[in-house]
Amino acid sequence: MRSSSLSYLPSTLVIDVPEIDEQHAGLFEQLETFKVSCIDHNAYQADEAEALFATLEAHCRTEERLARQSGLDFSGHGEKHRLMLRGIRKMLNDMEKPGADVFSLIRYVDYWFERHIQEEDRNLGINLRQVAFAEVGEQFADELLEQRVSG
Fold first, then answer.
1. Which residues contact 67 (CB under 8 A, 6 or more apart)?
2. pTM, entire model
3. Inside any domain, residue 9
């Protein structure tokens, strides 16, 4: 991801997990690019919408992988991802219908994404950092004990 993408992530939405923060910034940038493209063409841009959806799916998999690797229960968070993805998929499919409003789709994704980071991902970040800190602390304690035994 380009470092300029980080400018798309408000500081209040940074969760201090670099891989996730970079993806969040990239998603906000991609959403903004999609919005500008729809305005410039005065029409729904299906290819860009599908690319954004694919990026969002990949991001959800990243969060699930990080939680699983850290031994965290991700079931409730994962269910919120699945509900959101189903809702966005339905809206994308509905864009082909007459009278579909692409800007309602953009507002929904933007709102959902920001709210989800504040309500779910912030806690995920705290939990991931706590697990990482505990692992580093345990490794440090083991090394200290080894030094005492061998010294």
1. 73, 74, 77, 124, 127, 128
2. 0.84
3. no
